[in-house]
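ok trying this again, last paste got cut off
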Amino acid sequence: MTSMGDFRTTGSLPPHVAAIVKDITKTSAVLSKILAPLGIGPWNITKFSPDEIVIGEPWTNSVALATLEDYLGPVQIELIQQLEGKWLWNEFLEAHGQAWHHVSITVPNWDEVISQFTQYGGKVFFQIRAGAKRFAYVNIDGLNFEIAEP
């Protein structure tokens, strides 16, 4: 299994699927009971309130993010809980309940991939720069993708 240590060393995000949850502590605890006997875990929970710019507007929301210490094969599972503020994760949770939100892929040609998604009808509904890396959520035909730079 690959550990999160590899991500921290390379700075490259693993492919992952992300779910929006009501209570990150409770959900990660329940999933730990299922995954720990399989040798998967534990969860790393980080709370943050970034001051980056999102689509030209300041973002002051606070969120918690949980990732597994180990991957499920080559894929990471991510849990997201909106802690403060009202934003797209709250809206998603209200509309769908706890559910899978997006699949993430890291690409070296970010502008080109975003352009391809939008060329075929995709809508960018979230964009952020974290340090030198850009991330965007794109919805196409009801499916959400997170496109990230390495």
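PB: full thing came through this time. Confidence is low (pLDDT under 50) at residues 1-11.
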